[in-house]
């Protein structure tokens, strides 16, 4: 943080100290309007952030911090196509992929919208032809199974969105995702499939990623063995910026879908990387997903900071990370179909803001991105919520809930809603000594038992959470939710002054794996590594006989 930001950080600490003595239950008791004052909407999406350790003064200090970090200038620079991904010298323009307006969107002086629309039109045609059976397998059978082969940004977004939009999929066109280089995943997927009715999408921005290329080569061999080498071009499509490599793999020109270096992998679900989603839910639903994200973009770009959802969520994250020292943040969707949303956000957030140097390459002297984790409620309640309620670490949490389910199965949804409301209330209120004693007394326990049990049954409370509530998990709402979190990451990256759009931290392991592979394969001597790696290699070879 620049020095003025540093001093604002110190100001934040003063607010924290003041709020240390003001439990949320007291703040709620003193202010009947707290919900109204600390909730905001973007379209149909409501964020209730009243159950946070804040008051108006603290929020004002946070908005001042954003302004001191020139958040508005950086947001403008991103949308103007400036190369804000400085270490890779690239623009960060995923918002162009879902832009619904009619103005030019320029990067380096060139309007990118004609290219974006051309790829979308290509996706639309391909999607409708696969779904209506115009495009068929080499033996003339309709495709019933689509296997996306990709990893990281070329996998997590499409998997998450396909699961989230299950009510919009067709039972006769199933989606599968293979990402891991562990052959178990491809093996177990292929075992259930008929090559004659299976289409593969090789999704790789670079078309060089080892895991993806290894899986793609094995899938190609599976098709060629069953149907002959010529069938490959009928059973494969590709999504990539590396058109030459797709061609060399044997993919027909009209089945190659391009995108651009200004789309980061973890921000690429809106590009042709979303092709498996469009195939699964149909192009109209995919378009609605883009339109929902566009709505959030407009909110993010045009709404003043004090009413801006991504800004508020981003600032609360900074507040807890830097003024309170909370190291993790849970995302808890009370929406089974968002089961992969936390995993998706792990990449989006942790790859973006898990950084140790600032934009100038200087070491940070404050904490950056937290650990993001989570699982759908109510399952988590029967697993890790114990720690969230009574553990020694405080875990700020986001709860997500739809008002309307897709299925008519009373009383399931009412119970789900009651649980999500109960959890955020319990975290905020806690349970005092007096309350526990009164409860145990009413149960008829003797004095000694009450004394022994009371500390175990007390809840500290005062544990922060946000609640996001929306009418229904539609494609448009999913688009808005994903874009909301993308912009939240941007807000935090701006305040922490890091490059949220590179990911050099994934490189070292890749380099070492390349060097170790011949030693695993036994074509190179087991020398040169540290003693642990050497010992493990030796033991591995012993186990392999
Ligand atoms: C995301 C990262 C990373 C990337 C994968 C796959 O932002 O860049 O997760 O998406 O490494 O890369 P390819 O799409 O090039 O195979």
TrEMBL record:
InterPro entries in the record: G6P_Isomerase, G6P_Isomerase_C, Phosphoglucose_isomerase_CS, SIS_dom_sf, SIS_PGI_1, SIS_PGI_2
PROSITE patterns: P_GLUCOSE_ISOMERASE_1, P_GLUCOSE_ISOMERASE_2, P_GLUCOSE_ISOMERASE_3
Keyword Isomerase tagged: yes
Domain of life of the source: Bacteria
Gene Ontology terms: cellular component: cytosol
Localization in the cell: Cytoplasm
Protein name, UniProt field: Glucose-6-phosphate isomerase
Organism: Devosia nanyangense
Gene: pgi
